[in-house]
Amino acid sequence: MVAVTYVRDIDTSRAFYELLAQGGTTATCQVRDIHALPCEKKADVRLADSEDGTVWACLPHAEETLVTVPGAFIASQDGQGIAGFLSRRRG
Ligand SMILES: [Zn+2]
User: Fold this and answer.
1) What would the mean pLDDT of 44-56 be, rounded to a whole number?
2) Residues 7, 17: contact at Cβ < 8 Å?
3) In angstroms, what is the span from residue 61 Cα to ligand 1's centroid?
4) Tell me, what's the pLDDT at 23?
5) In degrees to the nearest 10, what's the CA dihedral of 60, 62, 64, 67?
6) 11 C-alpha to ligand 1 centroid (Å)
7) How far is the C-alpha of 48 from the C-alpha of 62, rounded, in Å?
8) How far is the CA of 38 from the centre of ligand 1 (A)?
9) Domain ranges of the chain
10) The pTM is what?
11) How far is the CA of 56 from the centre of ligand 1 (A)?
12) What is the distance in A from the centroid of ligand 1 to the CA of 29?
């Protein structure tokens, strides 16, 4: 397993490891290498940004993306996101 040493903060790190503990996903990494070839490894996390951009990524590419892309974060898959928050509000 690749050590993740460059995650930005505790919340991001916690979300990352919680997702890994859930077994990740069956998706394939969607990040291309520097020669524009598909990675094709099993994706471990889904990343997002505030512009609605998302990508499935393996651990090395997730780490690279989090370090390189300002505002990139790990998209939670626990169903407790903003939609869940709004659905629980009364009034
Ligand atoms: Zn990859």
Assistant:
1) 91
2) no
3) 5
4) 60
5) -140
6) 22
7) 10
8) 8
9) 10-89
10) 0.65
11) 8
12) 5
Q: How far is the CA of 84 from the centre of ligand 1 (A)?
A: 30
How sure is the predictor about 18, in pLDDT bands with cuts at 50, 70 and 90? low
53: phi then psi, degrees, rounded to nearest 5: -80, 140
Q: Look at residue 6 in the predicted model and tell me its pLDDT.
A: 45
Distance 34 CA to ligand 1 centre (A): 11
Instruction: Give Rg (Cα) of the chain.
Output: 14
How far, in Å, from the CA of 79 to the mean position of ligand 1?
25
Q: At 25, list the tokens.
A: 């996903």
Both tokens of residue 89? 């509000």
DSSP letter (8 states) at residue 75: P
pLDDT on residue 4? 45
The SS3 call for residue 55 is strand
